[in-house]
Write a structure and sequence with these properties.
alpha/beta, Rossmann fold, 9-stranded mixed β-sheet, 3-stranded mixed β-sheet
């Protein structure tokens, strides 16, 4: 009966793999060895031009043969820390055809390519044993949808773009923000979104006004205007009034809290007509 081959690597192969994992060894083979070869060949230039050409060709062939050895061959890539969509984008952007010699892969250039993707916050690349290229990613997590001039964009908690979306309904779980400068004020928008929990079912979005303050847009055409300073405190006061007096259930189109000491209410069209009718009836009675 034929003995089964031990799948474990030989001692020599194991030592070669461990040696190749050292950055100093890879740097020497990539830069040091060619530099030494060129320095030696330069000394032969004045002796024999034919010998120089043969030596250059030999050095190139030697480097090719070393690069094609199994311990220097990259057979696959693993993307860690990324969603399936982002992992697919990374593979497409790198476009590496395996197997490939590790000498033909410039990790710095590959890192710049991955880092340029919107959804990537940080990335590290490294070679591991058995011919594996590891791409470890910190993916940006979207927390808001921004209606910008370029369409709908997902933003992370720092206001950095993560991806574009075609429709608002694709991310109904995230708050909608709009207006110039809304991306830079995402942390404050999230605070307002959290404070608006009692009226969140009616909340349609937050609009940045003049790149300095917020309006909350509700259904039924209602708007809550908040001040530039301490907008969360002002919103809490509006919610308290709503709880105590059903303020937002009345026919009010605008709750203006830009000056919290002197809030202003703008009546809705129905309330205005009722008020005008009441005034007309009063004038008729006086006449």
């Amino acid at each position: 009966m034929r003995a089964m081959k031990d799948p474990a690597p030989s001692r020599l192969e194991y030592r070669m793999n461990r040696l190749m994992l050292r950055p100093s060894t890879r740097s020497f083979l990539r830069y040091g060895l060619p530099a030494i070869a060129l320095a030696a060949l330069a000394g032969l230039w004045s002796i024999d031009e034919d010998r120089w050409e043969r030596t250059v060709a030999f050095a190139a062939e030697l480097r090719r043969e070393i690069g094609e050895r199994p311990e220097f061959t990259v057979k696959m890539m693993i993307v860690e820390g990324a969603s399936s969509e982002l992992a697919a984008s990374i593979r497409k952007s790198l476009a590496i055809e395996f197997p490939v010699s590790s000498f033909n892969l410039q990790l710095d250039e590959l890192k710049e390519t991955v880092q340029a993707l919107d959804a990537v916050a940080r990335v590290t690349l490294q070679f591991r044993s058995r011919g594996v290229l590891i791409v470890e990613v910190d993916e940006r997590v979207p927390v808001a949808v921004w209606r910008s001039r370029d369409g709908l964009v997902l933003l992370d908690q720092t206001g950095h773009r993560t991806a574009a979306v075609l429709s608002r309904v694709s991310r109904p779980d995230l708050p909608l923000v709009a207006g110039l400068g809304a991306d830079a004020a995402v942390p404050e928008a999230l605070q307002l979104f959290d404070a608006a929990r009692p009226i969140r079912k009616r909340l349609r979005g937050l609009v940045r006004v003049g790149d300095r303050r917020w309006n909350l847009v509700l259904d039924r055409g209602q708007t809550i205007k908040l001040p530039e300073l301490e907008p969360v405190t002002a919103l809490n006061k509006v919610i308290e009034l709503n709880v105590a007096q059903d303020l937002l259930e009345r026919d009010v189109s605008v709750v203006d809290f830009r000056n919290p000491k002197r809030p202003i209410l703008r009546l809705g069209s129905t309330a205005i007509r009722s008020f005008q009718d009441a005034q007309a009836m009063s004038l008729t009675d006086d006449g």
